[in-house]
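Worked example

This section walks through a single chain of length 476. The input is the sequence exactly as stored; nothing has been trimmed or padded.
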Amino acid sequence: MDVADQPRIAIIGGGIAGLSTAWYLQKQGLTNIQLFERDQRLGGKLLTKHVALPDAAGELLVEAGPDAFISQKPWGLQLARELGLDDQLISTEPARHKVFVLHRGKPEPLPDGINLVVPTEFWPLLRTPILSWPGKLRMLLDLVLPARQSNADESLADFVRRRFGAEALDKLGEPLMSGIHNAESDRQSLEATFPRFIEAERSYGSVIRGIRAAKAKAGKPKGQQLSPFISLRGGIEQLITTLVAQLTVELRTNCGVQALRYDPTNAPAYQLTLDDGTRVEADVVVLAVPSYAAAKLVQPWAEALAERLQAIRYVSTGTVSLAFRRSESTMAFDSYGLVIPRSEHRLINAVTINSRKFAGRAPADYMLLRAFVGGSKHPEVLRLDDQRLTELVRDQLKAIFGLTAEPVWSGVARWNEANPQYDVGHFQRMDQLEALCPEGLLLCGSGFRGVGIPDCVRQAQTTADAILSIVERANA
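Given that input, the structure is written out below as tokens.
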């Protein structure tokens, strides 16, 4: 199809969802595409910083946003391989214990065989000090409890309490599962965040039996396998820089969209007004921005749609990264990190030891770690300035690990109103919301049908397929 005969496609938002949509449209031969990003850089929360250490000691590779994507959801890995990044993919480094849980002020290793909250091996569960004996036995009741009959969505908290008990929710479910989404477990949709547990219960009558069966079906990995968590040698932003380098469509940064007009009696039906007053016409518009930003654009002509978009909640989060000389630190911690239950009453949510998790994040004689703050647990700490926030994190690290060394470098990253909350019934609301979108308007991104890199890439694929269907109908 000649470019002149192609529909004019506008993508608003230059994060991983918007850029991936452009990529999959380009692969389908559609090139009459303009992508608009308000910020100076593309990539959104996929941001890697390279920090030079003093005395020419090397550099730190610091992730301001996500540091990995999961291999069980194949779409992120698929995109990386399509871009020719096979030789840049790296797995997590070996560790004696992958994750610790803070229990009564002391880091304790997560029992082997725990799949988020589901025990797939029984002896490690029975031996862990993280749970009381009544709590352990209550978890094993999942093996005999009847399966839930209702197909209605439920909260993560209700699910974990029902299958495994309140103690399992406090010590495992909330820090491990809600922590991924920076969410409140009593409001978090199980269907939208951990649907495989629903399927396990429905198919096997027991979540434990279902997850154990899936593990057995998967079998022993053959040959060299990537770990569940994957990153890139040059940091997660390498995915963005490689993607941008291979896109041939028009990418416009420092170029926000001030207004979006829709008139179905016109051809094309959409008109974008840019920040500089320029007007751009489009047959198809992809809103790859937070839902509240999308709401502002459609509100003048689609009030019901705007109201539903605005109803999706977001929380703010932050990270504090710190680097230490190993020779000055007494912290011996052979793990990727630590999660912290609410009941521990700490002002940080979790800690990742980045130099332990992935190779190449710090020189061998340095330790790089990152503390997570804010979210639904402690939004108040984000009101602190960078210096006070760093001091707070250092105080917490001293109390938990006895870490008193002076950092050789520290940095703060803040993500304001950047983490969508999938409350109970989220997918049902998305169905209703998408039904309100007129022909040619599509939603794509973390606020809609999955957070994280793989889910955003999957949405991009779906969006590109939907646009191709629009083109085929128009040419029929």
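What to look for: The two ends are 14 Å apart (CA to CA).
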